[in-house]
Amino acid sequence: MKYSPHLTRFFASLPPNKLAPLLIEALSALGVKYKVKLPTTVLVGGYDMRKEKFKGRVVLEGFKWKGVECSIVEMAREEVKERFSESCIWANAYFKGNPISWRQFWKATVKASQMEPHLLRRQQHPPSSRASGL
After folding, report:
1. First and final CA of the chain: distance in angstroms?
2. Percentage of the chain with pLDDT > 70?
3. Residue 122 CB burial class (10 angstroms; 0-12, 13-18, ≥19)
4. Averaged over 12-17, what is the pLDDT?
5. Residue 81 neighbours by CB distance under 10 Å
6. What's the Rg (C-alpha) of the chain?
7. Which residues contact 73 (CB under 8 A, 6 or more apart)?
8. Is 127 a domain residue?
9. For the chain, which terminus, N or C, has the lower number of CB atoms within 10 Å?
10. Would you say residue 27 lies in a domain?
């Protein structure tokens, strides 16, 4: 997967075809409306806690890690581009939804009981003797 500017992605220990049903189950438990477009893309939408509308997509992509098929899951808000007239070349692009609410939605998805057991996390390194001043 190429570089992603989004902070709303995570890695899972299951391939996309096995992770997708768990993701759908987690979205249902969170009360989020969804629509499966492709086997690896899910459109999501709804209202956040402030009753602001949000829309976006969840894309699952497979990769191999230590010989095991895993997934990268990227969640991105929908980008809307507007053009006002043919004579005016001005265009406006904006995202649907509050970025803080989108981040909270991502965290709730990651912490869902269906998803959390399959997350790949960074290994916590013990503090070095250099850092502790020894």
Report:
1. 41
2. 72
3. exposed
4. 92
5. 8
6. 18
7. 9, 10, 11, 12, 19, 23, 58, 59, 60, 61
8. no
9. C
10. yes
What secondary structure, in 3-state letters, does the chain show?
CCCCCCCCEEEECCCHHHHHHHHHHHHHHHCCEEEEEECCEEEEEEECCCCCEEEEEEEEEEEEECCEEEEEEEEEECEEEEECCCCCCCEEEEECCCHHHHHHHHHHHHHCCCCHHHECCCCCCCCCCCCCCC
In this structure, what are the phi and psi dihedrals at residue 15, rounded to the nearest 5 degrees?
A: -70, 160
Residue 3 within any structural domain of the chain: no
Per the structure, the complete domain to which residue 93 belongs is given by 9-118
**The domain spanning residue 76 has which CATH number?**
3.30.310.80
Q: What pTM did the predictor assign?
A: 0.74
**Calpha distance 7→48 (Å, rounded):** 18
Q: Is residue 44 part of a domain?
A: yes
